[in-house]
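agent> Task received from the user: take the single chain below, predict its 3D structure, and emit structure tokens. No templates, no multimer pairing.
agent> Plan: (1) validate residues, (2) run structure prediction, (3) serialize to tokens, (4) report one or two observations.
agent> Step 1 OK, no nonstandard residues flagged.
tool_call: predict_structure(input=
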Amino acid sequence: MLSHIVIGVGDFDRALAFYRALMPVLGVAERFCDPSRPWAGWQSHPGPRPLFVIGRPYDSEPHAAGNGQMIAFLAESRDTVVRAYEVAMNSGATSEGAPGLRPEYHAHYFGAYFRDTEGNKLCVACHSPPD
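)
tool_result: status=success, residues=131
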């Protein structure tokens, strides 16, 4: 369904450090990084799509986080959700909802919500029953 997702960042180095800490927890590999542009991307496995990309806005205007926009990453387990949230918090994120069940979505929805270092809202969610 998706080819790629691009989110804007204002402080590329700070955002790069954040995503370089978070993505390995989710099992997502870095595909490229070009600080001169600046942009970096991570690819799904077995890949290469969808691609998740961070970078300075193409129009050279300042980055602004979108209201009502969120990227949700799929986690294989509830433990992965917890680990991702902890890594995010230790890497400069702000919490929008600690890991836990969200039965209003469905019986096994286990998610965590946070904003990255640039204010972009993210979620890490597991849809499977507990191990």
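agent> Step 4: summary for the user.
The chain has one domain: 4-56+69-126.
agent> Done.
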